[in-house]
What does this fold into?
Amino acid sequence: MAKAKSTIISDSSEWTQDLLTQFDKEIARIAQGFKLDTYPNQVEIINSEQMLDAYSSVGMPLGYSHWSFGKQFLNVEKHYRRGHMGLAYELVINSNPCISYLMEENTLTMQALVIAHACYGHNSFFKGNYLFKTWTSADSIIDYLVFAKNYIAECEEQHGIDEVEEIIDACHSLMNNGVDRYKRPNKISLQEEKARQANRAEYLQSQVNQLWRTLPSPQNKVGDAAEKHFPEEPQENILYFIEKHAPLLEPWQREIVRIVRKIAQYFYPQKQTKVMNEGWATFWHYTIINQLYTEQLVNDDFMMEFLHNHTNVIYQPSFESQFYSGLNPYTLGFTMFCDIKRICESPTDEDKKWFPDFAGSNWIETLDFAMRNFKDESFIAQYLSPKVMRDLKLFSILDNDEHPDLEVSLIHNEDGYQHLRQSLSENYNLGNLEPDIQVYNVDVRGDRSLTLRYTQRNRRPLGNTKEEVVKHLYRLWGFPVKLEMLDEANQPQLLSECPPKAHPVKH
Amino acid sequence: MSRFIDRRPNGRHKSAVNRQRFMRRFKKQIQEAVREAISGRSIKEVDESGEKITIPAKDTSEPSFSYGDGGVRNMIFPGNKEFIPGDLIKRPNQDGQGRGGSEASDSAEEGQDEFAFEISKEEFLDIFFEDLALPNLVKTQIAKIPNYKMIRTGYTSQGIPANINVVRSLREALGRRLAIKAAKNNKIRDLENELALLLSSEPNSARINVIQTEIERLKRTIGTIPFIDPFDLKYNNRVMRPEPSTQAVMFCLMDVSGSMDEAKKDIAKRFFILLYLFLSKTYENVEVVFIRHHTSAKEVNEEEFFYSRETGGTVVSSALELMRDIMLTRYPTSDWNIYAAQASDGDNWNNDSPRCKELLLDDILSLVQYFAYVEIMPRHHQSLWEAYLTIKEVCPQFAMQHIESVKDIYPVFRELFKRSEGITHG
It folds into this structure.
């Protein structure tokens, strides 16, 4: 060593609170140098059992009580105890301050990796990405969860666990249909929430009554009524529709619908930015730890352990491997961010042709822009380069159930790049991953039945779960519920109905 | 600057309530699974550790709208080696199981139809013995008060020096002193005021002297108030409280004559183990006495009881006699709750059956909480069964059932121990 005095922070692999603070200080300094803007961090050290607990509440630090979380817990516990599954090294919550969990079992190296990954990577993503900014309110989520937990506990006391459970079950089944995909939501604020909660119950009820009061008006001509359509436009947010218009729900039931809906909305951006979020965090832990090494703050042992773990994280088994379980979002995201940096720093001719607007630009700014303004779908459509497709050897398979065989439609070649990129982007479009089902009509003048409409694309059918979901919806709506499908010839067909009517048997 | 918080000392079972909710919701299925588990395999294993429970996955599923198989999809995979556009690949395994790798592999890990998880031994037994109760338990606790325990119940003013409660006593003393002093102190204050007044207005008044003496006297009286008085003393009060006996002894009586083959012994064993588990849930301390008999009875250890082979005829009364003797010498009813289970295939020497009846009625049944007789796979009921039937009619703590196959063990057990009103308070 040239230097007389070692700058290495620690030779040990055991962590102590002091060392963590020291690492955090250095990492924060480096992160700042890279212009990462973060919420303040709150790092909580927990043991593995507490991690199991945290897992089962889907990452909510305090959730309301429900059997499905218990099921999740039993499942995770079983796999963990049998050694089928390691626990994640960290969990991070989109809140302000940003809460991350470190497991006590981790070595010092792992803790440093996790601090870089969660406290500066994910954290800056939560703070900067437009989806999180518009859809979630990091300042008040914890308060809102507390409110939700207490409210539901109160309901259980008043109305019994079974009643409440029934409502929550029904809401959970519609959680995916409880988000606004296009509309900008109002932010959750606890003060407002509390203040409005009491009034809202009344107000909501009156709104509902408003709608239904007009219905048996005897003066109305039948002809006029047939013209009117309610809702005027199809509604994609089924839970919202229920909350506002379900005729028979009690005020507290409406509030529970609202709670589940709000929580679904809170998690929605995470689903849309899996690749970006993980890629971003992985890119930054990699960059930051390497910087530590460059500055000789960590030694070779540290680095070897780090690289070993990092490599595991971004391991992508190929499609025929027994370990293959889809594209690893860490790999894809990490590779893409690294690639963007490469294109900025040393663009090839190909890059200049594909990415004229940022090839050769300042990489920190370009990455920052990408992080702020995209979600997985658009990020891939915009930034996936031919080189990444070649490196990952991506290819696409066309599965058309009318053909006996699967067809290799595109590979990573000159003809394929553009389309391959488009297909991959579409595969990350949640609108494509989840069936498009909207509230189409309410028979306000008649039996008050609710009709959902599934718009079919690519001839894809709905899974068998639809019957169950329709039953759940019936529980909330209180009057008959129908699910119909608009096939590609624009003809509606009845798929499911609750309560079932005696129809001529058709198989 | 980041804030580090060590949460490890916090509670670690935050999910316990959710887990409880899960158990609550699927109680029926779990009970079903527990019963299945019991009838399916050796009961001894149950006692060892947690139990794996499997319930149908469709009950626990959380449905949401999703795509089914079919239609047109374009999927992207990594790791191409030799494919070129236009290559055709055979569909893997019908059913269109090409649901995108991730889902396929997730579901393969866990059987499609079952949700499996583990419950602890305690939970297992709780579910298993739910709705069952030990007969005559209540009666013993009330009728026989075998043990006393000293417990503290506040304070008294009488007692022995060893029980003096110092803090209490001193507090009393302080209170008393304050109370007695108060009136005198008031008087002194008044007198002093008056004195001060007099001293300034008429310094030569004779009254001054009187007041001074009076103050002097009062102060002296205050000085004589005892620091502590026998009246102040408080003693810890201890009383004897009857404690119901929480130990039980279980007599296992089994016929090991030639006609009891391995299958029958196995059934008997399972029955005994069930009873043992059940008793150990209720009593802190359960002892087991194994008595085996053919023509003569012998007390043996567990190993010998279940596994060694014997042949020969059968005299049931020998076992009952031995049980009675052991009971009288080692297990006084003042200290022990006595349970007995007898297993046999019903064979007995004909002349012996009346003797058995006599023994039970005269010597045994008055001492035991419960006597259960199971007859295992009898070819036909013999004299013993007939004799016992007459006992059953007159004696509520006697019960009998017969077991046809392994599957019957649990139902019979439930039948014998099901919670019922009436008998316990007889």
Observations:
- The longest helix of chain B spans residues 166-201.
